[in-house]
Amino acid sequence: MFLQFLLGTADTLMVSHISDDAVGVIGISSQLFAAVNILFMAVASGAGILVAQRLGAKKEAEGRLIGIIGAKLCLGLGALLSVLLYFGAGPIASMLQLPAELQPMGETYISIVGGGMIFMAAMAGLGTVIRNTGNTRSPMYIAIGMNIIHIGMNYVVIYGAFGIPPLGLEGVAWSTTISRLLGAVMMIAVFCGCFNQRIEWKDFRLFNRPLFKETLKISWPLGVSMSSWCFTQLVIFALIAMIGSKELSARTYMNTMESFCFLIGFSIALAGQIRIAHLYGSGDHQAAYRCAYQVIWIGLVLVQANALLLYWFGEEAIRLFTDDPEIIMLGVSLLAINLLLQPAKMVNMAIVNALTAVGDTRYVMIVGFIIMWLVAVGGSYYLGIQLGWGLHGIYAAMIADELLRGLLVLVRWRAKRFMVKSAVRLQSEQAALMS
Fold first, then answer.
1. Are residues 254 and 336 in the same domain?
2. Out of 35, 289, 356, 373, which could bridge 230 as a Cys pair, Cβ 3.0 to 4.6 Å?
3. In total, how many domains does the chain have?
């Protein structure tokens, strides 16, 4: 995940040599693409969780079929969104509240990168299924290859190497899309061999209505919850754009640096989710319950250590991106607040992923949707815009959102409702067999 994240970081760092305005375009466009990617991740996560549960229960044939169904859903959704983003780039750039001077750049970037969403769908959908089989290394190796290709192409299109004229932000967009295309091809090759029985092209015609419904039952609440988070972030970026272009650039740089902390925590939470789903599928519910707390403590130690390093060396890191003193001052002032934001995120991610692993996605959806829109978005508007606190007010609202959601999902996990539901389901299955 860190290596995939470097695709965006490489864009931000290298595009900063074009202009801070180009960085702002990438920052707000990336929120849009993250929201789209969340749709793919939601479908893939539902399939991935069921794959892990089936493998834990020694039902590999069902797990394989669920993986195929999830892959087809992601690819179909990716093709549809590629068409919509390519032809609707102009209206979308306006909707994102980009300043007038950034509109042409935004339209170009969104049309090219958005037109390649099917490749992002392949990376998200297939990669999630592969990881839930326990193979977390292959997606990592693919990410390494993608980064080498992407950074190399960025160098050529930004600096005009090998006699090629500099292509600016448009060239970076093509670099991103081509690297994702190559990554998707490699991911398909790995996906076809990720189960004991190899997946052939003819297997993509397979379909099972009950397993499809079971996948959607987990996926649609995940889709609402995860999309809601990304769209709230998109709205918050639009609010920041209303404050000013320097604030937008500062938030983009901070978002890039904070992501180092976030990715550590999220990767640990995701590993915990895979482990908990396997344990839950095997019937070892107590071990699954304890695993969530192990994830929290391991994650808190590593995330907070990373946040402290960022606090100590953050100013030097910001200067790698920009030499604008106002942007640097804004970024540095937010580094201390980040020490509160990251631990709150870690607790929230750990328990949300644990609840997701046992299929309790509807509660996560309800809590996430209400709190994110009321506290994160409403609080950002009130504190950041109405009271005039700017970025500091928006950060305060984001911290309040993470803390409140984390508390509510932790209460839910401690209630152990998934154990009760599992016992009831097992009794029903036994009764059906006896009858």
1. yes
2. 35
3. 2
